[in-house]
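Worked Example 4.2. Consider the chain below.
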Amino acid sequence: QVQLVESGGRLVQAGGSLRLSCGVSGRTFSICNMGWFRQAPGKEREFVAAKPWSDGSTSYADSVKGRFTISRDNAKNTVYLQMNNLKPEDTAVYYCAARRCYTTEYTYWGQGTQVTVSS
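Applying the procedure from the previous section yields the following structure tokens:
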């Protein structure tokens, strides 16, 4: 099993920045990919960003490209989502997720952290 715990969400003004953290523990050797997703009220959950557990290229949703950055601190087993130039439409619950190797679905999910961007 893998455990994920997000933190860092809060209320912020438009144009501001936030850094979300996702602490990863458990069978981390089974993870090949980490992702961030978000779900706004009344909307479906959507992909935000992803990166391989080891070194590799990152990917982003078009809506956040150039503003958000996903990264990992290997020593701390923590994945970050740096969010800059936040917009009211970024308001959502943000979830960290882990995908096991040789699978196509994200298996492990955190509890989510609320990000609210005021205009």
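The first strand starts at residue 2 and ends at 7. The mean pLDDT is 96. Compare this with Example 4.1 before moving on.
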